[in-house]
Amino acid sequence: MDWRLILIGENGPTPKHAERMTEALRVAGATSEIASGGTSEASLFPVLEVRDPQDRLDRAKIHRIAAQLEMDVHIAARPPAECKLLVADMEATIIEDEMLDLLADMRGIGPAVADITARTMAGELDFSQSLKARTKLLAGTSENLLRELCGRIRYTPGAKALVQTMRTAGAKTVLVTGGYDIFAQVVARHCGFDEVVSNHPVFRDGVMTGELQLPICNARTKREQLLRYCGELGIGPHSACCVGDGANDVEMLQSCGLAVSYKGKPVVQKIVDLNITNGSLIAALYAQGFTAARIADH
């Protein structure tokens, strides 16, 4: 199988990275050379044409090599093109933390909830059932505590620039998360998302009951929202960029044109075009052909 790799760096052309990647690919059993012209026309990043006649490479292995070399690599099946739709996960993607884990820490039940979260994102547990279980453990939590936690949200580098740059370019931006709406609305306002789809814990007298409003936003929902907005915009899924990090994002990532993860779990690295481990979410803009001059607040 042949591969086309664009080596992305936020500080301009990286010829040394190309040399290091070429050598790493050779060790892995593939040969590569800088494509005609030497760089991606839009981003001025090195482009490698990789020959892998014995199929020793796969997406996960390419992403692992890139991470070891401290670079981000876009596996480009087609020339970079600006997407008309952004559908993004929230936790460990647009923001750095898993909010339910933080909430559980504040309630003194952190390890129990964090274990369920980790196993779910690795694909070991069904998301809907695990969310119900975690929410049940959080019964008795005051709504005020959730609002207090909103002040501790940490945004992933480049998140706001990704959303606002794509919006300025005319794209629709949608935050679709299995997390709680109380957090998602704050994140959406900060970054500038057009729409939010999330989950709603049930409160009674200002306290979580341990139940969730139905239907639950899960992996299927994320794919359905991707296809829904594609339909509304009159575009195909190939014109959409999706960003996620875990098993709950796999269905939407498999269905879009540009699949991106931020420090993605192994289950996601198998399928994404770009797994960002070295730079910021701005790499997802470079993968679409945006130049630095067009990137918001950059």
Plain-language structure description:
- The protein is globular and about 65 Å long.
- The chain has 298 residues and is α/β, with parallel strands linked by helices.
- The chain has a six-stranded parallel beta sheet with strand order 7-6-5-10-11-12. Strands 2-3-1-4 form a four-stranded antiparallel beta sheet, covered by helices on one side. A two-stranded antiparallel ribbon has the order 8-9.
- It is 37% helix and 22% strand.
- The protein has twelve helices and twelve strands.
- Residues 37-43 have low confidence and may be disordered.
- Helix 8 (181-191) links the parallel strand 6 (172-180) and strand 7 (195-199).
- It has two domains: 1-80, 2-Layer Sandwich (Alpha-Beta Plaits), CATH 3.30.70.100; 82-298, Rossmann fold, CATH 3.40.50.
- It has helices at residues 15-27, 59-68, 99-107, 110-121, 127-137, 143-150, 159-168, 181-191, 219-233, 250-253, 266-269, 283-286; strands at residues 2-8, 31-39, 46-51, 72-75, 85-88, 172-180, 195-199, 201-204, 207-212, 240-244, 258-262, 274-276.
Compact description:
The protein is of the alpha/beta class and 298 residues long. Helices cover 37% and strands 22% of the residues.
State the helix count.
12
Top-tier CATH class of the largest domain: Alpha Beta
CATH homology-level superfamily of the largest domain? HAD superfamily/HAD-like
Task: List the domain count as a whole number.
Answer: 2
* Strands in their spatial order, largest beta sheet: 7-6-5-10-11-12
